[in-house]
Each structure stands twice: as C-alpha cells, then as structure tokens.
Amino acid sequence: MGAPKQKWTSEEESALKAGVVKHGAGKWRTILKDPEFSGILSLRSNVDLKDKWRNMSVTANGWGSREKARLALKRSQQIPRPDDNHMALSTVDGSLDEEIVDAKPLAISNETLQITGPKRSISRLDNLIMEAITNLKEPSGSNKTAIAIYIEDQYWTLPNFKRLLSAKLKALTASGKLIKVKRKYRIAPVSAFSEGRSSGMLLLEGRPRDSLRVEKEDFRLLTKFQIDAELAKMRTMTAQEAAAAAAQAVAEAEVAMAEAEEAAREAEAAEADAEAAQAFAEAAMMTLKSRNSSKLMVPG
DNA sequence: TTAGGGTTACAG
DNA sequence: CTGTAACCCTAA
Fold first, then answer.
1. Distance (Å) from CA A66 to C1' C4?
2. Is the pLDDT of residue A95 over 50?
3. How far is the CA of A222 from the C1' of B11 (A)?
4. Among the listed residues A59, A112, A51, the one whose alpha carbon sits nearest the alpha carbon of residue A299
C-alpha cells in the first residue's frame, strides 16, 4: 500500500491495462507507441510499463512469479538477533511450499470486462465518426467504408456495427452535422473539433434540450480504455466528486434513454448509445458504492 | 527490447 | 524496521 516515488496514476494504470489487452503483454514498446496511450504514458518508458505490469500482476494475483524471490530474499534479510541463534539454521522453512501456482501469467482483473461484457458495447458513434473523418483527412470527405474501417480498426465493434453506422450517418447528415457529397461525408463547418481528450468531466453529448448544463466539451469518446480510465479516476476522487460524477452519468443515461424513446427513426442507434451510457452509469454507481461502503479500499 | 533479479525510496 | 512499489542493472 505504499505510496512511493513517481507513483502511477489510475489513468496510467488503465492505459497500461488497455494496452495489454489490445497489444498483448510484453509488447511494451508497441503499447507505448500507440497514439491512444502515448499521451498518458508519455512519461513512462517501456521498462516502466513492464515493471508496473509486474507489480500489478503480483498484487492482483496475490502470488505472482516474483513472490518466490521475495520470500527467498526475505529469509536472507532477517536481521541476526544477538540472542536466539541457538537452533536457527535449518528450521525455518517447514511450510514453504513450492506449490506456488504460476499458472496465471495474466492477472488482468475484471475491470475491463465488466464494461464491454458479453453483451453489446457501443461508443458514441457520433464522435467516432467525427474522429474518423477528422483523422482520415481526406480532402473531399470520407465514404462510409473508410469510416467503418477506421472505427473498426481503432476501436472494437459490434456484429451489427455496419447497420448502426449507416443509421448514424444518415441521422448526422439529416441533422446537419455532416455534409454528404457524392457518397462522401464531411464534417459540417459549424462545430470545430479539437482533438482534446481529457477534459475534466465526462459528457456523453451536449444536446440542446439537455437538462444538464453543458458548457464544456460536448465531445466525448467512450472507448473501452477511456471508460476504464474514467472509472479509475473516479476511485481516486473525493466522495463529493465521485457522487457528482456518478449522478452525472446517471443523468446522462436517463437523457439518452429518453432520447431513445423519442427518436423512433434511429431507434437502434440511439438505443445502443443509451445502453452504453447506462452501462457506464451502472459501473459508476458500483464504483461509488464500493467506494463508500468500505473506506478501506483494496489497493489498486 | 524484454524478463527477471536486485536496489532504493517511501509509507506504515 | 518491514512491506511495497518504483527504479536500476544486465543477460539473453
């Protein structure tokens, strides 16, 4: 439970976990180069990632592969007490089992799984589409296929992703956020998009009719990694902040759900969005709950 | 570059 | 002083 030197932030841990999930453990350099994580992990080296992953594995597992060395080291470090050296030499290790199971090299805990889960998982397609078009940087706009490929490549997708994308593209065009020109989509000049990633609070989207005051970025990506990071951040918040964040998430979920009911046309896409928001809200509430119920949190 | 042993800084 | 997590060193 120590708190040592350049302690890893929750965001960094989440980024590392997400990186391992994406690229696999051991590909530290690859993870570090991934633009999705390079921002947060820019101050860490590949060795730092490796060491941190080792530490996390040890603590998460209880008994990592390093524990053996620890125990061995421990015994040799026992300070020689002036007294008591009578029959010391060979009695020490009566129950030192070598049974220690090394069977679990991967100690990723449940956190990433609880969100994506076995069920559906969708991010804000609006934002993903915007990001895709922005980053693709095609002068004349990007067609649906290119957008789909970008999103599929950059994030995870659902079985019915293509349908949702079509629905969203249509809706965005109808609402004026996108301009469709000969099968290609461009971002409408109205809203300037900053690539800014880490604004303080998470907002699904700022809609005109939101009951929430939305003055900040109405730009939010819900990637697996970012959800995890958000929850991790929440764990380190104060009680008030966490409560506010959870309430915010719930409110957003409600808004999204209401929208889903209203918008009959793009029912599918809206519902998916709403469910994503709700999933996060539930996770947020769980986090808050465990936070409050036991002030002694499990480390990490 | 990575895996693993070893070392150091910090908290309890 | 002990335990832990970050940091360091080095073989492969």
1. 13
2. no
3. 36
4. A59
Under 8 Å between Cβ of A128 and A193: no
Residue A6 CB in 7 A reach of strand C: yes
Q: List, for residues A142-177, the tens digit of each pLDDT value.
A: 777 778 777 766 555 555 566 667 777 777 777 667
pLDDT tens sequence across A256-288: 555 554 444 444 555 555 666 666 666 666 666
Q: Bridge partners of A180?
A: A185
Contact A244, A279 (CB under 8 A): no
Per-residue pLDDT at A162: 66
Confidence (pLDDT) at A253: 60
Can you tell me the distance from the alpha carbon of A202 to that of A233, in angstroms, rounded to the nearest whole number? 11
Say which residue the tokens 């053996």 belong to: A68
Chain A residues 13-42 with Cβ under 7 Å of strand B are 25-30
> How long is the CA A52 to C1' C5 vector, in angstroms?
8
Task: Give me the helix-helix angle, A267-293 and A125-136, nearest 10°.
Answer: 110
- The answer to whether A55 CB is within 7 Å of strand C is yes
Q: Is the CB of A67 under 7 A from strand C?
A: no
